Amino acid sequence: MKRILVPTDFSVASRSSLKFAIELASRAQAEVFVLHMVVLPLLQETTFGIQPIPADEQELQKATKAANKVFEEIRKQFPSKVEVHFNTMHDDIVSGMQVFIKEMGIDQIVMSMHGSGDLEEFFIGSTAEKIARVSSVPVLSIPGDVALESIRNIVFPSNLAPDQDDLIKDLKDLQRMLHAKLHVLLINTPVHFCNERQAQERLEQFAKNYSLCDFTINFRSHQFESSGIIEFVNEIHGDMVAMATHGRSGLAHLLKGSIAEKVLHKIDYPIWTWKLK
Prior knowledge:
Blueprint: E1 3-7, H1 12-28, E2 31-37, E3 43-45, E4 51-53, H2 57-77, E5 84-89, H3 93-104, E6 108-112, H4 120-123, H5 126-134, E7 139-142, E8 153-157, H6 165-178, E9 181-188, H7 196-209, E10 215-221, H8 225-236, E11 240-245, H9 250-256, H10 259-266, E12 271-275
Parallel strand pairs: 1-2, 1-6, 2-5, 6-7, 8-9, 8-11, 9-10, 11-12
Antiparallel strand pairs: 3-4, 7-12
Helix pairs in contact: 8-10
């Protein structure tokens, strides 16, 4: 983890995520890139059918200048030895972030679960979920003001599938950076059923295969995976959930949904999502 992206709408919540990112970057010896997306209302010309009108250059410059002024206030609010870069873009929020991630070599996103103002939908609802679903790098969603030191127990729900080397490597790096205990969780459902002996064997083999350290293995039965995960987090007083997401889109997403997104809707803990390749 060397380059952390923090998208911001300048809300209190997004500033809290920046504070968390700076703490994380300090521990990881990383850089922080703050990104504000300048989104102007889309104008349309209808003389020859509906045609988009390019954004007015003066309005873009005005919005960018206003953003830079807020950046200066934020820089004073969060003095840090960590190198923090402030950036603006004019683009669609999701596609613009993907371009920025690629161009700047970002390897982690830290963002707020909540926002306010004109870009509130950026942080809550479908857009935040889409970022977690399509992002090529892990996304850490923060619910409000969370101190890095408060994260001591990470819950990792998994189907224990093989060939998760990259995911587990990043997860172990996160665990070491947070000095946290890892709780591997297998949820037994009517759709994906296994008995307790089989589950114990699979969990033990999974931990051995990936040389896990400072961990527990756990097996719970529940009708729905997302509800089982949330109940377990509350049971052990977990501080963070780390989950893989398949990054489904289109019809596949409508039919299958996303367990990670369901959990994101219902918990008030930091959640780290990693899109399976």
